Amino acid sequence: LRTGINFTSLNGFDNDKTLTGANFGAFVTQSIVTTFGVTGEINFMMKGARFEDNPANIEANAINYLEIPIYGNYFFGQSNIRPKIFAGPTLGLLMTGKAKFENNSTADIK
Fold it and tell me: Nearest-5° angle of CA 81, CA 85, CA 91?
């Protein structure tokens, strides 16, 4: 199992600030041989940004994703601690997207 904190912002806005969100998920790795394996994950990620002094009066955008990466691992060494390199694609599914305005109303941005 995996859990953590995301610190995200949106590029292209002069007045955006970092939004803090949670992430959690699970993963499994299957070694095909001692030096190579495949990992699959499923992760829920909370992303977005906060805004200050913007003409649209948007206070924050909260965007939630389900991310499903699958990647190959190359393991170095044969000891209990095995450094690795990995690469592979990720499927990201937008679950929800909400804009919160300064008057506390919300709008769906999905």
Answer: 120
| Phi/psi of residue 109, nearest 5 degrees | -115, 15
pLDDT tens digits for 63-96? 999 999 999 999 998 888 889 999 999 999 999 9
106's enclosing H/E stretch is strand 106-108
Name the token pair of 58.
């948007």
Rounded Cα gap, residues 2 and 24, in angstroms: 5
Asked if residues 22 and 46 have their Cβ atoms less than 8 Å apart, the reply is yes
* pTM of the predicted model as reported, rounded to 2 decimal places: 0.78
Sign of CA dihedral 77, 83, 84, 85: negative
- Asked if 26 and 55 touch (Cβ cutoff 8 Å), the reply is no
Among candidate residues 29, 41, 37, the one with its CA nearest the CA of residue 69:
41
Q: What is the chain's Cα-based Rg?
A: 19
